[in-house]
Design brief:
This protein is of the alpha+beta class and 191 residues long. It has 4 helices and 9 strands. It has one domain: Nuclear Transport Factor 2, Chain: A, CATH 3.10.450. Strands 7-8-9 form a 3-stranded antiparallel β-sheet. It has a two-stranded antiparallel sheet with strand order 1-2. The longest helix has 18 residues. The radius of gyration is 18 Å and the shape is globular. The mean pLDDT is 90.
Amino acid sequence: MLCNELGFGGLLYGPPVIEKINNSYEIQFALQKQVLRQDARIEISTLCRNTLKRISGINAFIQIFESVLGMAQGTCFSNLSLGSDISDLYWRYKGSPWFKNLVIMEMIRLCSIPQLNKSQETPSTPFLVVNRINNVEIPSFKLVDQRLEIFVDLDLEGIGQWKHKLSVFISTPEQLTEGRKKAQEINYELF
């Protein structure tokens, strides 16, 4: 269940309970326990995708956010459910006022709905340090080198409110089709 007003989501523990009270309905949701968040102040490091130099701290998280948002769901052969739907949403809702809210919902999903990764023993989310999506702004639909500029306002574990500009890769419809086909073929051969 995703709630864009709260910038929060989670997996349902059971079916919702719906009660009629006077002339209105009340819906109650029981959510499963949230996955533990990683403190964003803890030093992590990764390789910079442009220079292959080691980057750490918040710069590493920025690259992780951009990579997760830019990897189209269904294009990772080792796990077809990894990635985001932002490229699909971009081409379907380009120019629409709906696009911003759909990107917010996708980001809420990425920070709230856990997946069990083969290399991990416990479920985690792609945005493991994000507690909440406060806001997202998309100033223009113009792509520069297939990248879309997105301004995010997030609540990071251990830091609090954090605002930054992300540059998200947007696959073309042809790249999406080809990437998903190749990933499915490799996944089928390996697994």
